Structure to design on (504 residues):
């Protein structure tokens, strides 16, 4: 790519949007400059542009994103057939097993939810399309990492901040690679309270009609009602059934 | 705003992202130039920038957004407390009435879903946070338009392409303004198959603790099981109950 083919103002602006997050709803020009590494004048111009275009509100001191910004992310969800095709299958699965069912894809070191059918919430996090979880300790993440060449998976793990969410979280890259090998061999991943105490989940890969893994499907359940050791016995068949039904529908 | 405070490259880039949509998942440089009104060279540079930053894939001819783009819209949902506060109330409401319950805000002439608890799907559209519907024929849209000064509501209606989704859709601005007056007086809006045949919905305004309408809540139901004329008798009290519980929690 030639340098003249790159719109730096656009790249900087996208960085500014990403500076807004869960704990950073209202940001000043200095806040944005600090968290993006852009100089103050650039941060200011990007923020004023967002506000001028209606993507942000400005009260004279703080900027906050407006719902117009949802147009950007939603373009992916509405334009990608996968969430649309998968959703009714997740609805049916979730109803059948009385637990939440989700689909996600990998984006870097994280899984991104693209569809979800939820029953009573057991997680403290409110998961929805667009939500992200670290791949290494999520069942869908394990399945998606296991589908990659080993060196790529290891390289992603090395880029990840491997922290313990619970005392059970695997954080050693060597142990994680062993677990990925097991997931690859058995064709599914079970997470037993590694992400949140009280929560188990099981995931299987979702292949397209050419046999390439393009997403993962999972079911989450409260550990109090379904112990980790029983997840596969209960949910593996329904999950695999849905993956089998979806396979011929998913063209590259 | 001074012209030098505006980053045109950023503004053009955002336009390019918005060019991707439900029916336009894969776009060539010419497609984007055409739909955005940008010249080919500019469209090309914006697309290559998106691809360079990982927000788009490029196969040499077509560009498609990647899940990384969800980071942009998701920044709003995760950074705004409203969806988080509202979600558990919607879950409870949806479970209680065995119908889908949603919350949305206004963005221009459209309502944008910010939270949703769904039961069996009755709509052909897969609604999720970030989904949009035209305000004039959606129950939450009617409630939000009714909360505005009349001249602003009328001006929004005049900017809207008022089309008939079903034979029952109100499309006359005069009739719509009368309906908004009724909605304002009675404190809720019922849509009886104006958006989709077979679907009814009822919405109430959601006020913050200072009495300002900041969002709308609704319940949708299949017309076959709950006729439009019975929506208020069945669902108005549960909806108003939730709005009352939420009010003191919503600070400006």
């Amino acid at each position: 790519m030639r340098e003249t083919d790159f719109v730096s103002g656009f790249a900087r602006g996208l960085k500014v949007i990403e500076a807004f997050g869960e704990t950073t709803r209202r940001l000043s020009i200095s806040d944005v400059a600090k968290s993006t590494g852009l100089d103050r004048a650039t941060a200011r111009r990007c923020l004023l542009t967002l506000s001028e275009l209606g993507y942000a509100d400005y009260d004279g001191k703080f900027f906050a994103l407006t719902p117009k910004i949802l147009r950007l992310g939603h373009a992916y969800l509405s334009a990608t057939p996968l969430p649309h095709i998968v959703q009714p299958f997740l609805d049916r699965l979730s109803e059948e097993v009385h637990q939440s069912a989700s689909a996600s894809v990998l984006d870097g070191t994280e899984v991104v939810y693209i569809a979800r059918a939820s029953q009573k919430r057991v997680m403290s996090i409110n998961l929805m399309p667009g939500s992200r979880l670290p791949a290494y300790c999520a069942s869908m993440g394990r399945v998606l990492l296991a589908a990659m060449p080993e060196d790529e998976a290891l390289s992603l793990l090395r880029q990840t901040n491997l922290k313990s969410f619970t005392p059970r979280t695997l954080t050693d890259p060597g142990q994680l690679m062993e677990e990925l090998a097991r997931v690859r061999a058995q064709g599914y991943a079970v997470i037993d309270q590694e992400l949140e105490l009280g929560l188990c989940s099981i995931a299987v890969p979702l292949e397209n009609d050419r046999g390439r893994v393009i997403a993962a499907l999972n079911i989450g359940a409260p550990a109090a009602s379904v112990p980790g050791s029983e997840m596969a016995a209960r949910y593996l068949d329904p999950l695999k059934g849905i993956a089998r039904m979806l396979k011929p529908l998913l063209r590259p």
Q: What stands out?
A: Chain B touches chain A through 69 residues (CB under 8 Å). The CA atoms of residues 112 and 132 of chain B lie 5 Å apart. The mean pLDDT of chain B is 91. DSSP finds nine helices and eight strands in chain B.
